[in-house]
Amino acid sequence: MDEFSFIRSIAPKVHRQSGLIKGIGDDTAVFRQPYQDIVTAVDTFVEGVHFTRKTMAPYHVGYRVLAANISDIAAMGGTPAFYMISIVIPEGWSEEDLASIYKGMDDLASLYHIDLIGGDTVSGKELSISVTIIGYVEQNKVRYRSHAREKDIVFATGTLGDASAGLDLLTNADSGRGLPEEARNYFIHRHRMPSPRVSFAKALHAAERVALNDISDGIANEAAEIAEASNVSLHLYDEQIPVHQSFKRFNREQQRKWKLFGGEDFELLGTIPERDWPIVLSAANKAMIPVAKIGVVTTPSSGAGNVVLHEGNRHTILDKAGYTHLK
Ligand code: ADP
Ligand code: MG
């Protein structure tokens, strides 16, 4: 198939966003967004680095790469609207595979009511997909990492470590021995088809100040980014970090590693003044997802922002890379 018929085959027949003026088919896309601020991000997904064909079907590849981008918009408190795809196509990928990738993206795009408005197509050695996402956010409601303040509470949505458990189930034959089929499918689904928390983040609009980060690289890393950007310390209480009921079936070492350092759950980590906790609860209620209070914010402990993990009466300084230093 030549590039033109490929583009024709993946070009959307209908559009969901009223602000769209011109989608695929000219030198650029055109849209109008008169009142809000624009938020935009780009993410690249490379075969062999971010996924393998062993653990994901082409459909999941598309779904998952777009999910990661939508999650970035959620983490800013924004609403996603448009996305663009730059794809490098190697020889081993068939027309059906490519159609499946785009189908995975479109199914997710339909859930979030967003439009594919352009892209670029080239051939190369490895499959690589870059997604550029564009969204909008009400003025003064952008949720920066630098928004955490002393005495805030720290919260996390959903359950953590699920995607890592799913990946382990897919890559280790021995993983999750005795785990019921239903739980196994749940973890694998969380790895392949994450649900970015856009409606939760939007429902926080009543709060004046929220620091937000999406959990793409593990909660330890995301908490450290907030701590650094805000120059505060985040204290996390291990037993309050939310996990799925079947998570306890994995061994303790795996549980600790996955819930603290496992990425790609695409849940949200945030801090908010204590008095606004009811806003967080009602946002979670509205989005029909769990949310948990998992810690507090204090002045920076050793002069600079860091993350302190409390496990029973022991505490550890967590570092971003996933290594911990006993204190
Ligand atoms: P140009 O030469 O102006 O860059 P292209 O031939 O690359 O135009 O693209 C033609 C149209 O198809 C443009 O609207 C572009 O955004 C869109 N497009 C190209 N490749 C893709 C792709 N992989 N996914 C989505 N849209 C694409
Ligand atoms: Mg082009």
Description:
The chain folds into two domains: 3-137, 60s Ribosomal Protein L30, Chain: A (2-Layer Sandwich), CATH 3.30.1330; 145-317, PurM-like C-terminal domain (Phosphoribosyl-aminoimidazole Synthetase, Chain A, domain 2). The chain has helices at residues 3-10, 58-74, 95-111, 162-171, 181-192, 198-203, 219-230, 252-261, 277-287, and strands spanning 20-22, 30-31, 37-46, 79-89, 115-123, 128-137, 153-157, 211-214, 233-237, 268-272, 291-298, 306-311, 314-318, 324-326. Mean pLDDT is 94; it is low at 323-327. A hairpin with a 2-residue loop joins β12 and β13 (314-318). The longest helix has 17 residues, at 58-74. The protein is an alpha+beta fold and 327 residues long. The protein is built from nine helices and 14 strands. Strands 8-10-7-11-9-12-13-14 form an eight-stranded mixed beta sheet, with helices on both faces. A four-stranded mixed beta sheet has the order 3-6-4-5. Bound molecules: adenosine-5'-diphosphate and magnesium ion (MG).
Compute the number of helices.
9
By CATH, the superfamily of the largest domain comes out as PurM-like C-terminal domain
The tally of beta strands, per DSSP, is 14
- Overall average residue pLDDT: 94
* Cα distance spanning the termini: 60 Å
Question: What value does the Rg take, in angstroms?
Answer: 20 Å
Low-confidence stretches: 323-327
Class from helix and strand fractions: alpha+beta
- The name of the CATH topology of the largest domain is Phosphoribosyl-aminoimidazole Synthetase, Chain A, domain 2
Topology as a string of helices (H) and strands (E) = HEEEHEHEEEHHHEHEHEHEEEE
